[in-house]
Recover the amino acids of this structure.
């Protein structure tokens, strides 16, 4: 028997799926983040690297906040979940707007790499996560087990 | 009130009037960019709640898909916001 993943637990309702996805996205952002900061840092200098890090932090914070709000609301009732999704959308957009508005005049801010990071990482992380979630939910039997890993290494 | 606003606007230099108009248009564009995703998220969550009510045993899977759907729809608003910021300040 293979080990049960967080996604399989979430699929049967044993854990809040939103927090599992957000946790996984944070891990993926930790992999992609340094590469992106390095690349944009080489193009736009130190300011570009700092702006990229700020944009990445905004995207990750947005996912984590969305997951926290939805999993909290999901424990209470579906109606509350709906309210949390809609008002959460407004609240998070306002927070992102304020977060950028407050630093836009700062000396270290480069808006182009920050904007590219926000759009690119948001969509990129989602695509990556969607592929992983789809595969783990739709084809759990294809997940490599410890035995198959052992036999393939021989 | 509108006459007073008109008089005040007439007193402003042309460059200021232009930047006020540009700010208004950028704000309107950002507002419109958030309108579509707002409708989309409302529809998406409504359908998800309906799916969970019809089939409670699939709630986990529905919520997983719903969360990803919300994030994808929200990306449209983020794109609108970033375009607004870039047009306004760069």
């Amino acid at each position: 028997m293979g080990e049960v993943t967080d996604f399989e637990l979430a699929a049967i309702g044993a854990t809040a799926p939103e927090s599992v996805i957000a946790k996984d996205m944070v891990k993926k952002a930790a992999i992609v983040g340094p590469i992106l900061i390095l690349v944009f840092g080489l193009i736009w200098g130190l300011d570009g690297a700092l702006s990229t890090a700020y944009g990445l932090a905004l995207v990750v914070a947005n996912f984590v906040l969305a997951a926290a709000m939805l999993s909290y609301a999901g424990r209470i009732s579906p109606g509350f979940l709906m309210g949390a999704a809609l008002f959460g959308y407004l609240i998070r957009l306002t927070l992102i707007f304020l977060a950028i508005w407050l630093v836009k005049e700062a000396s270290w801010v480069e808006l182009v790499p920050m904007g590219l990071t926000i759009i690119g990482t948001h969509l990129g992380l989602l695509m990556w996560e969607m592929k992983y979630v789809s595969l783990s939910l739709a084809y759990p039997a294809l997940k490599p087990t410890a035995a198959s890993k052992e036999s393939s290494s021989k | 009130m509108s006459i007073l606003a008109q008089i005040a606007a007439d007193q402003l230099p042309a460059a200021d009037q232009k930047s006020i108009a540009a700010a208004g248009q950028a704000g309107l564009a950002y507002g419109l960019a958030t309108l579509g995703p707002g409708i989309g998220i409302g529809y998406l969550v409504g359908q998800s709640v309906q799916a969970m009510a019809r089939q409670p045993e699939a709630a986990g899977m529905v919520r997983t898909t719903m969360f990803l759907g919300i994030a994808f729809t929200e990306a449209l608003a983020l794109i609108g916001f970033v375009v607004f910021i870039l047009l306004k300040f760069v």
User: Anything to note?
Assistant: Chain A touches chain B at residues 7, 10-14, 16-18, 21, 62-63, 66-67, 70, 74, 78-79, 81-82, 85-86, 89-90, 92-93, 96-97, 100, 104, 111-112, 115, 118-119, 122-123, 126, 129-130, 133, 137 (CB under 8 Å). The mean pLDDT of chain A is 85. The helical segments of chain A are 6-11, 17-76, 78-103, 111-138, 146-153. The CA atoms of residues 70 and 103 of chain A lie 28 Å apart.
